[in-house]
Amino acid sequence: MKNIILLSSLLSTFLLSEGIEYKGNIGFESSYADHEIAGKRNKQNALRAELELKQKTDNGQLVFNGKAIADIDDKKRRYFDANDLYYKHEFENSDLLIGRNTRFWGAMEFYNHTDVFNTKDLRDDPFDYDSKIGANNIAYTQYFENSELSVIVKVHEERQRVQDLESVNRFVPAIYGDSLETQEGRDRPTVYLKYSGSGDEVQVDYALIYQNGYDEQRYLAPVAGELRQHAYLVDKVMGYATLVSGETIYKTELAYTKSKEEKVSDYAQVSLGLEHTLYGVWNKSDLGLLAEYYHYKTKDKSKLGAKEFNNLFADDVTLGFRWTLNDGADSDVLGGLAIDKGNHEQILFVEYETRLYDKYKLGLSYQHLAPKSGSVFKKLDSVQLDVGYYF
Amino acid sequence: MKKILITTLLSMTVLMAISNQEVAEKADLMTDGFGSSVAQTEMILVNASGQKSVRELEMKTLEGENGDKTISTFLTPADVKGTKTLTHEHLDRDDDQWLYLPALKRVKRIASSNKSGSFMGSEFSYEDIGNQDYEKFTYEGAVEEVELNAEKCYKGTRIPKDENSGYTKQVSWVAMESFLLKQVEYYDRKSELLKTATFSDYKQIDGVWRVGQIKMVNHQNDKSTVLIWKDDKVHAGLSEKEFNKRVLKQ
Fold first, then answer.
1. Considering chain A, what is the average pLDDT of its residues?
2. Is A326 on the interface with B (CB under 8 A)?
3. C-alpha span between A110 and A129 (Å, rounded)
4. ipTM score of complex
5. What CATH code is assigned to B19-249?
6. Smallest CA–CA separation between A204 and chain B, in Å?
């Protein structure tokens, strides 16, 4: 109730003020999955809407970004979330943000193990790593000539709701309950110190992050007859960098996590990647070739590690391409093959996006999942259609 | 009478002696000195069958001795509203270039060595949109005096110094009276005519000549793009701070 009142008063502030900037979209998504998994539906259809409002003041801005999903088939996928609802005050060489927002940290194209600030929204496509839940936080950033230093304090841990049992995108058992167990309470702050910058003479961007607080990955354990997520405390150091040399971009992400929970092992993660673009390959279209490798190393195998967390990127290679047609409709094809070297699981995906009549957007995607026996995944072929009106 | 004759002869000698590079340098000077600018632009993409798609951009530029800094923000189409590109141009090395994708809140560094890539799906390449400083070229042959649309022009050939340029040569037409650039023909890596840019609707704003429209016609695919400056402000008072990576996320 408190949240509804707060949201209503903020929206009223937006709507009553002049010079408000807005953008958004309303769309329909439909998916069909060919599988032999008992009890799972083949089709799923949903309406979705997204709205962003931005009100600039003399020294800052108030931002709201909300998304609403109304799934025709899945009752658990009917919800509204305000993933951004914050005020950012800008000083001469610094700014202060208070509220709820999402952030992106990382360098790789397909998967970022340093993108740990927000909790993933599991009610969306599980392989869409950009779908996140906003986090309540306070952040102060000091800007220097070619770098910036941020102190970010996340003040609340979000729980992860999932799709219903009949959805092919649900990978947790029926006894999963979305209450969150935490080592020291959900409001125990998680502190991030982030320093990032760009090279002067060399075309490099980098970031170094120290984290103290709750880890982004959570383990499942039974509580009161249901399987619940458990958030545990860690000290983590992370870094990522992007280096451009000619037409090739080299990328890396590194992280080391020291667990403060007895059951969970310390672990290290590394990603290496490159992207090489061939310009004007056909007509004036560009072809980007991508190769990425991800590794998760569990320090103490007697404790919970990559396998128990169902980490899909424990020892994986993804080879992909991005074909940018450079046409008036900004058409784009992204495809790839993700190969789990250890488990021999493979995911093949192709995504196509184009604009229709300036205001509409069409997305088509295909995914083929070929898991090994005993995996939480089952063989699956799925196609998804997404049509949206943008304003 | 003797004086007039001498003056006329001297003027003719000066005119006759003007070199290709001098024309380019003078043309460059005509549009230099804007300090910083904020422009609302419209880009009309026309495909081979005449279908149009329109996109609007806000372009902020800061003039610099070692290259300009530019931030372009998409205003339309709606699905890309808020997408930004930031370019720090360098005369002596590859430019620094970043792309901000608002839906993902992601700032991506992008490779800028290949200058021939299409600028936002248009017939302009990144090279065409960037600063056309006369020092970026070497000059070939003598200047010809020709007429273009009933206007007397200097016609000259320039060769891009950048080895990653998409062009082997460019032929330019500069108005003799105003020293404003009127037309450029671009020759691809096979030395075949690729595109022609026509510059028009020049306006003098706060003492600086600014182009009002550039039409780029691609002769190889029959597509064209028209870039129109709807609102253009020079000496806009922008500082280095407004071209920091920080502004991408604002």
1. 92
2. yes
3. 8
4. 0.88
5. 2.50.20.10
6. 8
